Amino acid sequence: MIFSRLYIQECIDLIRDKNSNIKQLLQMLNSNDKQALDAMWEIVISAELSKLGNIELEKDYSGNGTGFKPDILFTNHKFDFLADIKCISDHNKHDNNRIGELQLLIYKYFSNLGLTNFSCHLDIEDICTENRNGKSIDLKLPKDILGCFHEKIKNKLKLDQLYYDFKDLGDYKGLCFSLRVSLNDKFSTAHHSSYTVSEDDRNTTLYNTLNKHYKQISFYDGFKGFIVCDGDYQLFRQKNMVVGNIQHLSLFVLLI
């Protein structure tokens, strides 16, 4: 979800005097990476909540020994809550599994050889890896797609061969992916395991992000939680992520 520049400016004006880190937020907002989306959500949510009550942004709680600065403390005549605003994204997963880049390199190479009216179909193997955040699925594609293509893939591609198995690419051993070239067909495909959505609720980017930052708000005795925003997160687009009639989540509040 992208808000208009005019609306964002209105939000900035509303919270300008309530956030000592407004300059840092504006720098993030003008960047070209995920930080811009993080800043956008924080600015918009803070501004809208300021219309409903009093807000304190990034209040310093170091006096009670925590050293934490949660994003927002909201109070009005009915209740109060402390929250961190988290923009969830799995873009790094796509950056590490660049299927489209590989497929395009193969397609362009065959086109340069003179092949026309064809499609490329990839079947990509995967491996389960484990780190401090739990288990994850990684496709067996080299990190340096372009370099690997020139060194180990393109010299095996031939006009009179339609089926290929590619092994031992990058850091991966054994079969990495299979390629089938189909003539008189213009629709290419790629088959692979899902690397963005885990079957285990505790291995998702959403769970790991909130679990990692829980200490930021855990000390507070009143209502506390996370305001979770969509930073282009695949899990929010799954069929089982439905709340009422809303089939695509953009924002929700989780009070703990």
Question: How would you summarize this macromolecular structure in one to three sentences?
Answer:
This protein has 256 residues and is α+β, with helices and mostly antiparallel strands. The chain contains eight helices and eleven strands. It has a five-stranded mixed β-sheet with strand order 1-2-3-10-11, sandwiched between helices. It has a four-stranded mixed β-sheet with strand order 7-8-4-9, covered by helices on one side.
Structure description:
- With 256 residues, the protein is an alpha+beta fold.
- Helices cover 30% and strands 26% of the residues.
Keywords for this structure?
single chain; 256 residues; alpha+beta; five-stranded mixed β-sheet; four-stranded mixed β-sheet; 11 strands; 30% helix
By DSSP (H or I, 4+ residues per run), the number of helices equals 8
Structural class: alpha+beta
Order of helices and strands: HHHEEEHHEEEHEEEHHEE
The outline comes out as: elongated
| pLDDT < 50 runs, ≥5 residues | 239-249
Q: Mean of residue pLDDT?
A: 81
Q: Roughly what percent helix?
A: 25-40%
The fraction of residues in strands falls at: 25-35%
Radius of gyration: 24 Å
Largest sheet: 5 strands, mixed
- Order of strands, widest sheet: 1-2-3-10-11
Report the strand count. Answer: 11
- End-to-end distance: 26 Å
